[in-house]
């Protein structure tokens, strides 16, 4: 009897999941065009991986100012629509990746120009590696809601 109940439950769960996955959201041509989406809803971006740079700054006040400038520059680039995602890694890793940017461009050269506006990169605290990336064209839309959920801005 338990086996029969389990089989019925699995069948019902599978049928329920199948029903949910067949529903297609309504396609929005205007939004797709605005976001630069291809027929798959995707587009090219450029990822910049920030790595530990050659410069070590022991002066905490100077380092604090650099980090303030670093965060301010991220905010400026986000406001200009150039940065789609930015953030630090929470754990050390063997590649010495410290953080990443996803830039709203498929041009490595343009992404490099933008990353070089970062005061911490200019000071050598961070170096970087650049990679082309293909992701959802809807990715930039999350930024419009970020300010609604952040109580403080670092």
TrEMBL record:
Task: Return the similarity comment.
Answer: Belongs to the YciI family.
Question: Which keywords does this Swiss-Prot/TrEMBL entry list?
Answer: Signal
Answer yes or no on keyword tRNA-binding.
Answer: no
Q: Name one Pfam family in it.
A: YCII
Which SUPFAM superfamilies does the record associate with it?
A: Dimeric alpha+beta barrel
Transcription regulation as UniProt keyword: no
Recite the lineage of the species: Bacteria, Pseudomonadati, Bacteroidota, Flavobacteriia, Flavobacteriales
Alphabetical list of InterPro entries matching this protein: Dimeric_a/b-barrel (IPR011008), YCII (IPR005545)
**UniProt name for this protein:** Uncharacterized conserved protein YciI, contains a putative active-site phosphohistidine
Which branch of life, at top level? Answer: Bacteria
Where in the numbering of this chain does the YCII-related domain appear?
A: 61-133
Signal peptide range in chain numbering: 1-18
């Amino acid at each position: 009897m338990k086996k029969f109940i389990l089989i019925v439950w699995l069948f019902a769960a599978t049928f329920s999941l199948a029903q949910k996955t067949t529903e297609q959201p309504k396609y929005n041509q205007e939004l797709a065009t605005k976001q630069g989406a291809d027929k798959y809803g995707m587009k090219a971006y450029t990822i910049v991986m920030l790595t530990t740079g050659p410069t070590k700054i022991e002066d905490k006040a100077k380092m604090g100012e650099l980090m303030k400038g670093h965060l301010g520059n991220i905010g400026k680039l986000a406001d200009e629509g150039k940065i789609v995602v930015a953030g630090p890694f929470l754990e050390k890793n063997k590649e010495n990746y410290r953080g990443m940017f996803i830039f709203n461009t498929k041009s490595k050269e343009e992404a490099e120009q933008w990353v070089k506006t970062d005061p911490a990169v200019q000071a050598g605290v961070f170096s970087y590696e650049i990679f082309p990336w293909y992701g959802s064209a809807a990715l930039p839309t999350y930024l419009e809601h970020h300010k609604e959920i952040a109580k403080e801005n670092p």
